[in-house]
Amino acid sequence: MNVMTAVRAASSSKAAEHFDVLIVGAGISGIGSAYHLTQQLPDKSFVILESQESFGGTWLTHKYPGIRSDSDLHTFGYRFKPWVGPPIATSEEIKSYMGEVIADNDFGKHICYKHRIERASWSSATNLWTIEAVRTDSGEPVNFTANFLWMCQGYYRHSKGYTPQWPDMDKFKGRVVHPQLWPEDIELADKKVVVIGSGATAATLIPAIAGKCAHVTMLQRSPTYFRVGRNAIELAETLRQLQVKEEWIHEIVRRKILFEQDAFTRRCLAEPEQVKKELISQITAVLGPDYDVEKHFTPTYRPWRQRIAFVPDADLFLGIKSGKASVVTDEIERFTEKGILLKSGQEVPADIVVTATGFDLCVLGDIAVTIDGKPLNFGDTVTYRGMMFTGVPNMVWVFGYFRASWTLRTDLVADFVCRLLGHMKAKGAKKVVPALRPEDHNMPLLSWIDPENFNPGYMMRNMNLLPKRGDKPEWQHSQDYWAEKDEIPAIDLDDAAFVYD
Ligand SMILES: Cc1cc2nc3c(=O)[nH]c(=O)nc-3n(C[C@H](O)[C@H](O)[C@H](O)COP(=O)(O)OP(=O)(O)OC[C@H]3O[C@@H](n4cnc5c(N)ncnc54)[C@H](O)[C@@H]3O)c2cc1C
């Protein structure tokens, strides 16, 4: 018996601690879910297990210069806690907001940090989940049992990002860095930096380092849409001048933003060419008529098929205008000792290459799940509204929105879970599992998300890992907050899609 097996055997003889609800992850979803649970079902016992040393999730992991939200915090913040700062927030500001929620509600005693969950096993004999976690500091195994698993583990692997392999990367004499694992010791002064990618990460990082290195180049295969605007909301400023209460300002500004986003989405579908023209003209206004906006900032896809990053105060474009940053739109042929050779034959010199190339999709937090002894292949399940999964009892996953703030869905899903748990109690049920109804059996089963609707690389690369979608609203995650804000509260919990025991 090796040491780990011995420690595991010793620990499994310890009684597992039991909770009504076990929340996975202390990111924005996990903390929000805990809040709603305590408000709506104060009698339920719960624990939050978090593998990292603190709360924050995404906002703790990402430490690259300039890290900030690209959603406004009135809607990325919870509906129950007013956001009082500028709409686009730094990770420090988001963590301090979450820290206040934890302190105000005394959640500290409910969170077990440095507890990485490795296995979760459902038993229909006991109607319980057994959760096997490992303490990341000591390696000690710790077991729990729970009636209900509330999965708030996000959707990507925190331990590493996605870096494609280009030819001859090993010959490059400089340093290659992924923004998700930003090294503390990196020296930028006098260095030529190339950032590969053109998404929100690149758009954030580039202005933050533009004045601190010799030069920074954004190297993109193809252009992306951006929105440009002031990092302020005039209505919030006016209401504050009028000394309106922050609770009211939060609610009014949320409603305004959501109303405008809805109108914008509709316009993207109804008149994509006009929207495209408007988005691009915002960039031309900063860079001037001589800049090749057509080549570097005019995407071929229609607006909204991928998330549109917001560039507050045009900082990315001002960096380009000042000459401290530049854009190259081309494909990589291979790395060289001194930089990157492009298909056009141009070589971009680099001391540091930052691969802002995206995430590594991760389903269920890399937890090995079994149902009555059988390993769960998540890709074989069908999702109930992107929250629950056929054949998987007593589990909900918080998978937010891409086109609206993620957290809007955290709030909605939490209301659903609390209603479901209340309903189970009233019925005396110990188990609920979604199942296709007779009328659903001929339903076509499609990929989790329609690539025509939304197609970011990390999803496209790994769609097979995600549950299937049907062609009816109840069997898909529509990514439509404006429909779901009415649909989720109206879900009939006695519908045949829910099988209780
Ligand atoms: C740089 C960046 C900027 C973003 N900006 C925005 C934005 O502006 N607006 C927006 O809507 N979305 C944004 N997103 C998407 C963002 O990830 C979500 O909005 C949101 O933060 C996800 O929160 P979460 O709590 O669901 O998941 P996460 O933030 O991923 O947190 C999940 C937590 O679960 C823990 N965990 C995972 N697996 C396990 C396990 N097995 N055991 C124990 N713990 C586990 C993780 O350690 C982590 O702390 C951004 C993403 C990134 C990377």
Could you please describe the fold and organization of this structure?
There is one protein chain. The chain is of the alpha/beta class and 501 residues long. Helix content is 30%, strand content 21%. It is built from 14 helices and 23 strands. Strands 1, 2, 3, 4, 5, 6, 17, 18 and 21 form a nine-stranded mixed β-sheet that branches. A five-stranded parallel β-sheet has the order 7-16-8-9-12. Strands 13-14-15 form a three-stranded antiparallel β-sheet, with no helix packed on it. Helix 7 packs antiparallel against helix 8. It is globular, with a radius of gyration of 24 Å. The N terminus is likely disordered.
Beta-strand percentage range:
15-25%
Broad shape: globular
* Total count of helical runs of at least 4 residues: 14
Helix content: 25-40%
Rg from C-alpha positions? 24 Å
Structure summary, number of beta strands:
23
Overall pLDDT: 94
Are any ligands bound, and if so which? flavin-adenine dinucleotide
Structural class: alpha/beta
Compute the separation of the termini in Å.
40 Å
Please outline the major beta sheet. Answer: 9 strands, mixed
Can you tell me the residue ranges where pLDDT is under 50 for at least 5 consecutive residues? 1-11
